[in-house]
Each structure stands twice: as structure tokens, then as C-alpha cells.
Amino acid sequence: MEAPNDVVLVADVGKSRCRVELRSGTELLGAADHHGFPGVHVDNGPTLAFDLLLETVSQLPPGLPVSTLTGIGAAVAGVEASAEKSQELATMLSQRFSVPAAVLSDATAAQLGALQGAPGTTLIVGTGAVAFRFDDSGVLHRADGWGPYLGDRGSGRWIGQQGLQAVLEAYDGGPATSLSAAAGALVESPGMLPGWLAANENPYRAMARFAPLVLHAAEVGDAVAHDIIGEACRILTRTVKLASSGDEGGTPRVAMLGGVVGSDFFAALLRKSLASAGIEVVAPLGDGLDGAALAATRRGLIQERYIHRDGTNWPD
Hints:
By secondary structure, the protein is an alpha/beta fold.
């Protein structure tokens, strides 16, 4: 248990953005936001992550007690692809701030935050989609999260992509949809959509940004959009079932996180789909930054084997 005056630095270093917070217990002392990076697993990844973290920390409001840190927890993209580089980043952070440092994947941090270290399943639906379950022994079971080429089905990118494909199908003479008008805000003609997408620096994020328009169209009664959302719910329910298979703890339970489930309309449909599969939805107790804070302030978690620490034998 952390002391009331413990000050921890927590970070979510993702591919699209880097967020840092300085916390004292449950009190938020200050926060800063910066651009993202490719992932700790790439060439020179630990240095890229380290420099980005320092730059983001430098943007914290002045006068904060950064010098009194007692620990660092960083959820970082690419951790699952390189344990060695993740360990290297933890060591760099520990040496720079002279405190214990923990580095973990963003998905592991999300599961930690959502269930506060308890075993169970977390479904994360943002630009991508993945279900994570830690069993009672701390073993990780996952389903999907395989990226836009091979997976992330039912995600914001998937929903947006299906919506754009429906616009092009309508343009070809297929079922009419109000999504065609929505796409008019992007291009003059649906036939220009492929070029518009190719010109985007991050086409997957661009497709994900169309997802809210698909959700809105479904909510107001567009049949094509509603079919897309229904299929997304069925896919995500299967993803949770796959991650939960082998769970002998009674009724499977899942906490949901991510921007897409922030839609009340979508979350309600997904809950109904999950309930029909015998899966109970529980409210998340926190998010990825809360999970990073937990990793920074508590050792001996059941997820410990997936947390990369600096290796120093710090006193408790």
C-alpha cells in the first residue's frame, strides 16, 4: 500500500500520443500530453521512448514535486514484441530518476487498471480491438489485437472501414445508405475515397474517425450502418468468448474500455450481445494510467511476469 505522500510518475506512451501524469496517491498533481512514437520494439526504441517521456515530463506545469518521485509506471506500445528493450527502458528511467521503474504493455496496463490487479477479462475497443484475460495463476490469455492487416475486427478502424466500403458499394449500385452523405464531408465523390485514404499519413486512424458517423447513422435508423454495428458486436462477443475460454470461475465477466465503447448506443448493443452469450459486463475500476500507477506502487501482482522492472533490489 502506497503512503499518502508517495509521488509517482505514470505514463501512457502510445503510437498516437504520449500522456504523463504526476500523482500523489489518488490526487492528480499535473498532466501533460505529447505526440506518440512507433513503439519500444523498433530500432533505438528504448531511447525514442525515453526521450519522448522526458520531453513530455518537461511540459508538466512548473512547481510540481518531480524531484520527490517514489516510482515510475509506464504503459508503452510495443512492449509485448521485445522484453529485452522493455527492460532496457525500465533501467534507463530508473537511472534517470533514481526510483524504481516498471514498464508494461498498454493492454496489460488497461487490464490492471480496469480490474485493479484482479484476474479477469478486459475488452479494449479503440482504433484496434483486443481481449485480455489474466487467470488466477497470472497467465495471460488474449484474443485478437493482431493489427489492421490480420485482426482488430470489430474495432473503430473495422467499423469505419466497413462504413466506407458500404459507401462505395452504394456508389456501385448497392443498398443506399445515409453514410454516402456523411462521406461527402471527406470527398466530393465516393469514387475519390481510395485516393483520399491513400493520401492519409495514418489510414487506419482515418478509417477509425469514420466510425462515429457509422454509429450515429445506425442510431438514427440507417439499416446498412445498423448491420455493420450488429456484426461488430457479434465479432467482439466472440473475441471475449475466445479470451475467456477455459475460465472456470463461473459466469465469465468482462470490463470494457476504449473510445468506441464510450458510445452509450454501441455499449448498450454490445452488452446485450455479451449477455446473450452468458457474459456479464462489469464497470471498469480504472484505465491504463491507473494500471501503470498500480505497477509502480505494488509488487507481487499476479501479472508480474508481464511487467518489466529495472532490476534493482529497491527496499520496500
